[in-house]
Records
---
Amino acid sequence: MTMSAEVQKAHDDLWRRTLARVPGDLNRMIYLASMRDYNSGRYHHAGMEAHFGYDAVRQALENAHEELFWKLTRSSLEELVAELSLYVDRSGESPEELLRTWQMIQPYRVAIPMNVNALAAHLLLSNLRLALEVLRNRRRESRQSR
Amino acid sequence: MSGLVWLFATVFLVFVMLLYFLREKDSPEFMQSYDVPQVLESYKSGEIRDLRFLPYSIFSERDWNFVQNEQSPFLHRLFLEERRAVAIHWLKERAAWVRAIRANHLQRSRYSKNLNVFAEARLLFLFFYLLGLCRCLLLIVQIANANTLRSIALHFEAMTQKLVQIHLGFSNYAPTEEKAGFRS
């Protein structure tokens, strides 16, 4: 997707100053989803809007969100398990609690961008469910082997 | 002689089943409304071409090997269930594309003055081939491991993309009349 110059600047700034500090693509995708208003679906980043303007920032955030979505969707299951493991480790929560909560209420569903292909979204969500089970299974085995 | 009769009877039966199979009306949830101009715009913009990776991921041998190495029967079953669901979704979407393109093409060719019989026959064969293949895949994926269908699934995706490409070529027909907003 070609971007206007302002959007490109905002996009580059977002990656350089914000997303570079977030470890892992899954973390980044979830972070960008948190920039989206649940009621309107619009993205906001007050700091960036002051520099680049609302429209450019909104577009840049949306583009980055979709880029990360496609990157994760194209990943193998093994790569996604690694991403999820990194997310769990960096979350600051108890891994067992996080994995159980994620399996029960599936909060990752709201991390998907709005206008992406439904089939691709289905594939990523399905892979995340599998990745969760892989991690839970490994933890179970690790506890049993002690 | 009796062998020949059996052979003809079998061929006839297969033909009748195929005819029924292909002409059977689809349930509402199977038939999705696809706006053909939207499908074609998606193709021109590259979005449909970008989706070509999907069957490689859905029927991935690497993922299956990874899951098998985890040594968990529950995980194996979950993997097969999940991939089956995504495969069915993929097949239904592709079938909807084919139907939408077929219906759009039939409508446009009605108003065209420069039909190429050979090209039309080729396209007709492609429609039936793809829809028949899709139905077979839908049946098989319900009962077999989705990974066993990898080669044929990749072939199906390639042929569906080719159909969209061919239809884009046919869009250069000079229709004398067009109806807007067609939905299948």
---
Amino acid sequence: MSAPLFKYGLFGDEVSLIVAFLIGLGFGFFLERAGFGSARKLTAQFYLSDLAVFKVMFSAIVTAMLGVFYLGWLGWLDLSLIYVGPTWLPSQIVGGLILGIGFVIGGYCPGTSVVAVATGALDGVVFLFGLTLGIFGFGEAYDSLASFVQAGSMGTVILPEVLRVPYGQVVLGVVLLALAGFVGAEAVERWSARRAGGS
Amino acid sequence: MARLPRWTRRVEVRLGVVALVLGALALFGDPTGGGALHVDPRDLAREAETGADRVAPQELAAWIVEGRSGYRLLDLRGDAALTGYRIPTAEVVRPTELEEYPIYRNERIVLYAADDLAAAEVWLLLRARGYRGAAVLDGGLEAWKERVLFPRLPEEATGAAALAAQRARLLAEALGGQAITGGAGSEDPTVALPEPPPPPVAAAVPGKRKRKEGC
């Protein structure tokens, strides 16, 4: 067992920042290459004309899931040391709704807005400015929101525990879901293209 | 939307097949390395309430004196157990060695350690691995000394109390201790702990096949 590398002391806090920077470079590069610096491409998924975001994100999920699973199975990765964020269901549902509304209206999610700023898009700059104001405002209002934010704490939950099935079954289930999603997304895009062509 | 070249479609299909194969193979894998444990919280709560998760020192003393064989007593203190006093019939084993130690899920396993927390932690580990017969010695070694080896008995007792006192005295003497007569305030006599029994013979012989568990 030798990973997560940071948890096993392969490098310290300073080097971890450099590692994070390099990972961020790669993440931003691939987001931009996938066209996710464009608000039109990002919001197209909500109008069902271009589901690239869905396909890219789900591909990333499946790739990471399979990687973590097999590295853990080989004994190279200690799953118990991977940080998994805790779940607060009510506040995260509401937060997700707010994020979704902001995504459709503003054309970006937080990460892609940074990509847009890097490519010089003015709307990305405005979006990021609004995002920063929102974060600041949330921080200032936190005292009055704390009881709702922390309500319904479920701790750290993962699908195998919630569904009470072995890890392997969850992995296969997610893969099948992803493949069905990709096929479905392609069908929706073709239908949307036909509709756009016919109207 | 611009159409992608044909070769990208071939790559997508092949990646999909690879993902499907890996997903199917995942059915046979365990990424936790066997490190995941499962406990039934209701079961544990019920045992905590009824006391089924612990064995009283007097009860253990009776088993030892009666020569019962239906239990295993594990001393989890490591080196301290080898050099100091050990409860008779105790087997010395470190918590980290338990995974390889030959204990069986159909046995009554009684645990004691340097403190109650350590014994409780090992108890939880064993229960999570399916050792439903695991229990903690109630009060640990200190309770064993106070209630079995050097029990404090009333000076005058009648009826059932006298019988209980007599039983406690006999148990103490059988196990190398001595009952203390008198109430609170009386001085404890200077009594040395019995000599520790010789170190137990190693229970696991390398290469020896593990006995099958259950019926």
